[in-house]
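Standup, Tuesday
Yesterday: got the pipeline producing structure tokens again.
Today: sanity-check two examples.
Blockers: none.

Example 1:
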Amino acid sequence: MHFEILVEDQSGKKALDILVPKIIGNDNTFTVKPYKGIGRIPKGLRSHSDAKKRILLDQLPRLLRGFGKTFANYPCDYPIAVIIVCDLDDKCLKAFRDELLAILNQCNPKPDTRFCIAVEEGEAWFLGDIPAIKEAYPKARDSVLDTYENDSICGTWEKLADAIYTGGAFRLSAKGWQSVGKEKSVWAERITPFMDVNNNKSPSFNYFRSKLVALAGVRT
């Protein structure tokens, strides 16, 4: 099985480049393609924005239609699955998933696709493995980590920043969103090598893992 994995930012790519091989093993292949933000699903489910801007949801209808047509011509012994990984943020999970499925259902042919949504944000997957955070950041603040409820809507990246970044989320956000993005990539690079993909307390991470395992036929 080959996996085409689309993520909304560079930090997501850095995390999945490390995590995915731990899940699917060496007998499967994958590519993680990062975008420059999540954007929004376009009205009428038709992509109208400039593809060069690389905004994930804005381009998703066009991308899935293209994957469907391209993969339909691939040999049956080379199965390919598309995995869309994005943050829920403050959206309703059911409504958001229904919107994503509507995009897929208007494709003819449909690519084999799974939607994996991090609740609330990708940092929830790191916070699902507190031992990994403590390995990467031995001075992480237990007083912050102990108050986190897995996959809660609480300002997830801010919670992680308060636990491991000097001055916390307030100081980091004061430096601007570009600095926040760079720091998120640092977290991904430092924490994910220590993560145990078979022992994570984030329900949304476990959903992501279960979809990859099922498609790849990996024994657990």
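Example 2:
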Amino acid sequence: MTKPVVAELVELLGLERLEDNLFRGQSRDIGTRYVFGGQVLGQALSAAQQTVEEHRGAHSLHAYFLRAGDIAAPIVYNVERTRDGRSFSTRRVIAIQHGEQIFNCTVSFQIDEPGFEHQTAMPQVPSAEALPSRRALPPAELEKLPPKLQRWFGGAGPFELRYVEPRDDLNPGRLPPRQHIWFRLVDRIADSPALHRAMVAYASDFNLIGTALLPHGISFADGKVHLASLDHAMWFHRALRADEWLLYALDSPTAQGARGLARGQIFSADGRLVASTAQEGMMRLNGGHP
């Protein structure tokens, strides 16, 4: 039997179909102030995938976060069937809550076909098995945090994370703007490629814009900074499984104007580059400039 926390995420990304192109999704409170951006991203991709033929896989996604999502209210996803060609299909997805757009994205799909191949080499880092799992904070430390952060740091989520570089979110130091994180679901799921892509889209929002905070010695957990995703781009290159170890190689080339840019490459354990990401996010210091 699938672990409840994973089964809940599968259901969350599955959505309720209201009409041919209309879907409704619920939200899961994981300890963030508003709806977790990765949830909206994964649900929007899931909605788009349900309107194309099964043999066409998503290869790129470009999204904008327009408003903060309300965790207590459902989200409606309206899918526009923009184009169906011989090789490619395009879908535009609008997420609506309380009568307003909170998110929109365009997803492109392609049939499986052969072509040129090359890729960047996987970073030389310790294997996931050689690293400890991220552990929950001790109860005494958890009690010092606001309830939302207690849920973030104390709960057992559907993904297991293992950090290559040591970090302390509660007492951050100034670090280079790069990090490497292994992640996978804590249990196996069905073989559906569409489901695994939606799962990895969900997980791709973890730690991405946070990479841009590393050189500044500040953490989202200390309440001094307001972080919000502005946009998110994702490319799926090769077959992947969310329930097998994936290495997320992240870096942030710049931050300016209360915004930071972060990039990511996702590798399978055997070294295949399976996906790439990019995100710009708002990084606004509460109470003034740095």
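Quick observation on example 2: The longest strand covers residues 273-285. The domain at 4-112+126-285 is CATH 2.40.160.210 (Porin).
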